[in-house]
Design brief:
Elements lengths: L11 H10 L4 H12 L12 H10 L6 E7 L6 E6 L5 E9 L2 E5 L3 E3 L14 E4 L2 H15 L5 E4 L9 H12 L11 E5 L3 H9 L5 E5 L5 H7 L2 H4 L2 H15 L3 E7 L7 H14 L8 E6 L13 H13 L3 E4 L13 H9 L1
Parallel strand pairs: 4-7, 7-8, 8-9, 9-10, 10-11, 11-12
Antiparallel strand pairs: 1-2, 2-3, 3-4, 5-6
Helix pairs in contact: 1-2, 4-5, 6-9, 10-11
The structure holds S-adenosyl-L-homocysteine (SAH).
Length: 350
């Protein structure tokens, strides 16, 4: 049997080339691309001849994620999806409604190998990278299921996007394409635990997404304790990369800081964080945004969250010291919306 082809991972240019080998004209490739990107099954693309449809669908590796489980929050309507992939693996995506539009939080890998101590996604390591078609496929599948358009995407689900760099870059090109989902780069954020060389690379490609850095501690000692990646690239190196990214792209960076009770959430920690960031960005004119989130308790990790009041207090200290801090709302807390817990509970039951 010949190897199956993942058409949905292909750009219009690549489809032009492929269809040319079948003697098909260029405009067919554009039609095919836009139908693939809205999830139309190949056999239903009525502007292609039946013969072509049959030929393509026989060769296709259809990687569109299938809804395996769906939990809808009674509190805020957030939808948590467990998607089944073509090879049987599972990932999660979360659909959230905001005033400014619908946002989908997508996964970038099956599992993760970064080892952050508080995170459920990394407990069993990394299984594989997601394909570009599976990255965009999460959005397509969620739009098909909800019947609503998704205008914002955050790469904050399972996995480390910069550990799947090539596929993520390709995905960004696909999802931004005017004949595809046409989601603007400014409506996409990518969150990373700090894979420093890739931050420099990302600064060089002309893809003005919003970069989010999972910082979670203000000293190397503390950060290395909870995030092994810090042993490879320390805070100084990470922040230098952030400054370079800002200078090159003019895009502001936001910092994620998960508040873990008794670990990184004291007044002293808040002040250290404010000093660290203001010093790093001194003279660049960059506004400093910090998103605070109380840690989601994952049974296996033993970390606890503090009170809402202590989060507010932490936020006030940042705001008084040169940062713009917000305490994130916890959407979908009744549907296990956070961080790989649904995939994990499914895997444990199988
Ligand atoms: N690997 C990327 C993106 C996925 S994690 C990254 O590290 O940024 C998305 C965000 O959720 C990160 O900021 C991560 O640190 C945070 N996170 C992971 N587990 C968490 C938990 N149990 N509670 C709160 N935030 C968590």
């Amino acid at each position: 049997m010949t190897e199956k082809i993942d058409f949905r991972s292909m750009t219009p240019e690549e489809l032009v080339e492929y269809l040319a080998t079948l003697g098909e004209p260029k405009y067919r490739a554009v039609q095919l691309f836009s139908k693939l990107q809205n999830g139309t099954p190949l056999m239903e693309i009525s502007n292609l001849s039946l013969k072509l449809r049959a030929m393509l669908s026989e060769r296709e590796l259809d990687t569109l994620p299938r809804v395996e489980k769906k939990l809808v929050s009674r509190i805020d309507g957030t939808v948590k999806y467990l998607f089944r992939l073509y090879d049987g693996e599972c990932i999660e995506s979360v659909f959230m409604r905001y005033k400014h539009g619908n946002t989908l939080c997508i996964s970038s890998q099956v599992g993760c190998r970064m080892g952050c101590r508080f995170c459920a996604s990394t407990l069993a390591g990394r299984v594989r990278n997601l394909l570009p078609s599976e990255l965009v496929g999460q959005i397509i599948a969620a739009e098909l299921d909800t019947g609503e358009r998704i205008s914002n995407v955050v790469m904050m689900g399972i996995g480390e996007p910069l550990d799947n760099y090539d596929n993520v870059i390709k995905f960004l090109m696909l999802v931004n394409h005017p004949d595809g989902l046409n989601i603007g780069y400014r409506h996409i954020s990518l969150s990373t635990c700090g894979v420093v060389p890739r931050i420099y690379e990302l600064a060089e490609v002309d893809i003005p997404i919003t970069l989010s850095i999972s910082l979670h501690a203000a000293t190397d000692e503390r950060r290395s304790e909870i995030m092994p990646v810090n042993n490879k690239w320390g805070i100084d190196e990470l922040l230098s990369a952030c400054v370079a990214y800002y200078k090159k792209t003019g895009r502001r960076i936001s910092f994620e800081y998960t508040l873990i009770h008794g670990k990184n959430d004291s007044d002293k920690d808040a002040l250290a964080l404010a000093n660290l960031l203001t010093l790093a960005f001194k003279g660049t004119g960059a506004p400093i945004h910090v998103n605070l989130i109380r840690v989601n308790e994952v049974r296996e990790t033993g970390f606890r969250h503090g009170t809402q009041e202590s989060a507010n207090r932490f936020s006030d200290i940042l705001n008084r010291n040169g940062c713009v801090a917000t305490v994130r709302r916890r959407l979908g807390s009744d549907v296990n919306a956070a961080c790989g817990q649904l995939r994990r509970s499914t895997a444990n039951n199988e």
